[in-house]
Amino acid sequence: MFPYIPTTYEEEQEMLKSIGLNSADDLFNDIPKDIQLNRELNLPKAKSELEVKSYLTSLAKKNCSLSELTCFLGAGAYDHYIPSIIDHIISRSEFYTSYTPYQPEISQGTLQYIFEFQTLLCRLTGMDVANASLYDGGTAVVEAALMAAAMAKKDEIIVSKTVRPETRQILETYAHIQNLKVIEVDMKDGVTDLEALDKLMNNNTAAVIVQSPNFFGIIEDLKATSEIAHKVKKASFIASVDPISLAILKRPGDLGVDVVVGEAQGMGIPLSFGGPYLGFMAAKKGYMRKLPGRIVGETEDKDGKRSYVLTLTAREQHIRREKATSNICSNQGLNALAATIYMVTMGKEGLKEVAMQSTKKAHYAFEELTKSGKYKPLFNKPFFKEFAITSDIDAENINIKLRKENIIGGYHLGKDYPQFKNSILYAVTEKRTKDEIDKLSSVLEGIK
Amino acid sequence: MRKYDKLIFEVSKPGRKAYNLPALDVEDKCIKSFIPEEFLSDTELDFPEVSEVDVIRHYTNLSHKNYGVDTGFYPLGSCTMKYNPKINEDTARMDGFANIHPYQMEGCIQGSLQLMYELDKALAEIAGMDKMSLQPAAGAHGELTGIMVIKAYHEKNGDSKRTKIIVPDSAHGTNPATAAMAGYDIVEVKSTKNGLVDLESLKAVVGDDTAGLMLTNPNTLGLFEKDIKEIAKIVHDAGGQLYYDGANANAILGHARPGDMGFDVVHFNIHKTFSTPHGGGGPGSGPIGVKKHLMEFLPVPLVNKDEDRYYLDYDVPNTIGKVKDFYGHFGILVRAYTYILTMGSDGLKKASEMAVLNANYMANKLKEYYYLPIDTLFKHEFVLGGLKDTLSEVTTLDIAKRLLDHGYHPPTVYFPLIINQAIMIEPTETESKETLDEFIDAMIKISKESSENPQVVKDAPHNTIVRRPDETKAARNPVLKYEG
Amino acid sequence: MKVAKDLLYTNDHEWVKVEGEVALIGIADYAQHHLGDIVYVELPEIDDEIAKEDSFSAVESVKAAADIYMPVSGKVIEVNEELIDDPALLNADPYENWMIKIEITSKEELEELMTSEEYEKFLAEEE
Fold first, then answer.
1. CATH code that applies to domain A66-81+350-446
2. The whole model's pTM is what?
3. Under an 8 A CB cutoff, do A166 and B475 touch?
4. Tens digit of each residue's pLDDT (9 = 90 or more) over A184-194
5. Model ipTM over 0.90
C-alpha cells in the first residue's frame, strides 16, 4: 500500500471485475505490446517519509543558506523581510490545493484576492488595469513587448542596455521566433542614452523598454524617455520596475508609461534559488483587451450579490486557440496571494518604510565602501537600493574572501558587461544592519 | 461561519498597522539628499491600513470561500487534481532550499544543483528521453520552449520551408496558441469516429512544410493513440518532429514512455502528474525532455555534473537561449522530486494503474445515465456527452452547477470541443472507492432530477455563497479594480 | 434565423449593403446568434485599407470570439462607434446595426457574394 492511494486489494479486484477485466495489467491492453515498458522504471523503490526527509535534508545542507550568511547580492532577486503571517495564510490548503478559479461559486476566495492584487498594483503603478500575474519579471517584459508589437503591427523593439541582462536574453529568444527585431540602445554613465534612443526611433518602432531602477540600481528618467518613445505613432513605452521602489518614487502611470511590468519577488516571496517568483503587468486602459494572462472582474450573481469572475476570457487560448494574445493559461496564483498579503500587511506606511530604509542603508553602504578611495563608484547617478563600485581587484576573488567572512558579496558586472570587469553590484535591503554593512566595509578594505 | 463579504480596502482604518520594522540604525538623512525631488513621489500611497488580526481574519474568511483538493473530490478532466502531499510542502520550505539566492557561487549551491540533476535524470527515465530542461515555468511555457527547440533544429538544417505545425482537433487550446506564438501556421487534423487521429487525414496534410505534430497521448478523450508508432513514422518520414503534450502523463507512468513511442520532445506538467499544488492557478512547472539529436538546442543553463561537482552549464552549442529568469521554478521542483522519491518506481506505476481503474469504473457506472459517445477502454479520464435524454433542456453547465450543491467541484465542461455538451471526468488515483461511489450517486440523482424536475437543475446552484455570477456583465463593463 | 432582403452575404455570415461606391458591412443574424451575448466589438481605424477576406474586426462574447472578414476590399470611411459603448446592439438587431462603412475598391468582387435568396439556401444546407 502507498499512503496516497486508498484503494485496497479487495476493492481493486471488485472494481476490475465490474468492468470485465482480470488484472490491473489488462487496463493497459490498448497500448501496443511493443511500446509497453516491459521493465521497472530505473528509479529507487518507494520510500518512507522519514527516509525522504532525511535525504532531502542532506541535500539542503549542502547549500549555504542566507539564514547563516549576510547577503549583499541582488541583481533581480532580493533578500527583503518576509512577515510570518504570509506563510501561514498561503499554507491554508483551501488556497494552495485549488485550481484556476473556473467555477466562481466555489472560488470566490481566489478570485477576490486576485481582484485585490490587481487593485493594489494599479494603485502602486498608477495604471488603469493589471492582470493576475505572469511567470516572472523577465517573461513579463517579453509578454509586454509581444503585446505592443501585435497591437502596433510593427516589428522593432528598442531595449536599453541598462535592462537586466537575463531579461534581454529572454527577449532575444522570443523575438527570434516571432521575427521581431530587437535593437539595444546604449547607456551613458549607467543610464539609457536618450539622444541615442531618439536617433533609433522610427516608424517601425513598436516598443521602447527601459528598467527603473535599472540593472545598476539607478533611477531612469521615465518622463523624458516617454516623450521620446511617444514621438512615433502607436509605439508603446514599457517600463520594468521594482514595485517596492514605487512607495517613494513617482508612479510610472504619472510619467507617461503605457505598460508597467516587473518582478515582485521582493514582496513576500522567498528567494528559493530563483523561483517560483512573480511577474506582473499593469497598463493603460487601451491595452485592457490585449493583456496576456488571467484577469478578474467584479460582477453580480443571480441574487444581485457582489461577486468576482475570470473575465475578458475571449483573449485567451481556450477560446481563441491560435489567435490568442498569448499561450499563457495560468498565473502565479499562490505567489500573487503572498504579494497581496505583503502589500496589505506592510500597508500604506510599511512599504514606504521598507523603501526608505533600503535607500538610506544602501547610501550609507555606498559611502562607507567608497570612503577610502580603494573602491570607486562606477557611476555617478541617483540610485535606489543597489549600486556598483569598481576596483583593480579580481571580483571573483573579492567574493571568495567575503564568503570566508560569512558574507555573500555582490554581483560581478563583468559577466554581462565586459567593459565593467571587476565592478560589483551591491544590494542593500532594509534587512541589513549598520553592523553588517560596517563589517562588509572593513573586510573589503582588508582585501589585497 | 458568519457571512463575510468585505474587500481588504473596506476593512482599512487610518492609523492601524500590521508590521513592525527595526528602527533605522544608520544616520537618518533626508531622502532628497540621495534622490532628486523630481523622481520622488509627492502623493501618499493609497494602500490599506489594517492590523495583523485584520489581515489574518480577512484572508482566513476568503479561504472559506474556496474549494481545494483537501476540501473534497475534484474530478477536473485533464487537470489531474490529485492529492498534494504535505511532506512536499515541508521539503520546499527547508532553510537550505528556500533561502538560497540564485546567484550564489557554485560551491554554495551544490545541494540545489544535485537535486535538479537527479530530478532531471528521474524525469528523463520516466519520459524515455535523453536530457531535460527544468526551466519552463508551466505547461504552456514548456510547450513553447519545446516548439522553439524544434524550430531551432529545422533552422540548423537549413529547412526553412517547414512553416506548419499539425494539431489534432481534440487538442488543448494551448497547442495551437503555442505553435502560433512560435510563428507557425496551424494545420488541424480531424479525429476518427473512435476519437483517434485519422491516419489518412494525417497523411494528407504532412509534407515538406511540416515542422512537427503536437499530440497528447492518451488524448483529451482519455484514449490511447494506439497507432502512435505509425503516426510517428508518417511525421518523421515527412521530416517533421513529434511533440508530446504531457498533460495526460498520469495515465502511463511506468507502463509506457513517450520516448519509446517515437516522440522527440516531451513536456511534463509537474503540477498535474507529480503532485505539486495548483495554487489557485500557479505556480506550476513544465520541464521539457528531448532526444539526443535535440540536446544542442535546449535553453541555457542546463544542470550537469563533472565528477563530484554539479554546475550550471551555459555551453550548449546551438541553444535557443534563455526562456525565463534564473533556472526554473526551483521550489516546485523540490516538491516534485520529493514526490518521486516517496512514490518510487513501484508507486508511480501503481498510481497510473489506479488512476486508470478509477476512470473506467466511473465511466462504466455512469454510461447508463449519461451519453458516452465512445465506449471503450479509457486511460485516466473519459468524456461524457451530456444527458442520455438528448431532448432534455438541462445542459452540461446546469449539471456542473448542480454538482456544486452536492459539494463537489464539477468536472471539466465543454472540452474537448469535438464532443457536444462534453463532461470530462478525471478521478485520479488518490480517491477512494467510497468517494467515487458517492459522486456517481450524485450524478445519477442529477440525471433523474433532470427529467423529473429539470427546473431545480437549471436554477442550480442553490446553496453556494454566490450563484452563477453574471459573466456577460463582467465582460461588457469590466470592473477590474476597487474604486472605493 | 432572419435574413434581410436586398443585402449581399458571405458564407462567413457577413452582410454588405451597397449604396453606390459606398457599402455598409455587418454580421448576419446567424453569426450573432452563434456567438451569444456579445460583450465587445473591436473596429478598425478610419482610412484603413483592408483587402477582401482579411479581418477587419473581432467580436467577442463571453464564451467565444470571432474575426469578421471583409466581404469586399475597401477603405474604411466610418465605423459605428455606438457598438463600442453598447455591443449588445449586434444581438438586438444585426442588420440595423452596421459595423463599418467603406469605399469599395473593386466592385466586381461583389459578384462573388450571395443574394439573400442564395444565402437562405446556404443556411438551410448548413443546418
1. 3.90.1150.10
2. 0.96
3. no
4. 999 999 999 99
5. yes
